[in-house]
Amino acid sequence: MQLSPAAAGTVVLSLLVLCCVTEAHNITRILAEFPEFSTFSHYLTATHLADDINNRQTITVCAVDNAGMADLLSKHLSIYSIKNVLSFHVLLDYFGAKKLHQITNGTALAATMYQATGSAPGSAGFVNITDLKGGKVGFGAQENGGKVDATFVKSLKEIPYNISVIQVSNILPSPVAEAPTPAPSQINITAVMSAHGCKVFAETLLTSAAEKTLRTISMVD
What is this structure's pTM? Predict the structure, then answer.
């Protein structure tokens, strides 16, 4: 059967979309291959960082094993502070093992997902990466003056220039990221709509079950 040009174009487009979906990375699926990172993976999901990571096209995840996560959890931080700490371990650039050992001038400054949230003051959301002597690579919070707080252990998964998942020796300490973080405030959606000229529609919502649904959605982080 011969397809018309339009139909053939549709088929090609569908195949391209399928290929893009197939090639998209999934951080929890990657970490599922490594049981020693199950706690790290769990909290990426619990804080919704996993979705943010999956939606990025160029990213490096500095994973910490279960022992390292136990040290973090022993601090009894809120889930919101844990999210800040873990987002500090997600670099907004690609750093595979090879690139880490070939850093220009031996040092690089990388922005993190924590910096991208806008919650990090000043340079608190940046990480210094240093190519140390003896083949080691160190990581340190820029706010700590670039002091090496953790080292590169090994590469877990690399999809060149898309995602690199590496293991670092321990959690990168960041007093700012660990600071108490308030829960997201509830948003009165109907009030916002009224303020933007949709008063009639907002009042209609208030008298229907839809308003309760919207209120529930607004409480979800």
Answer: 0.74
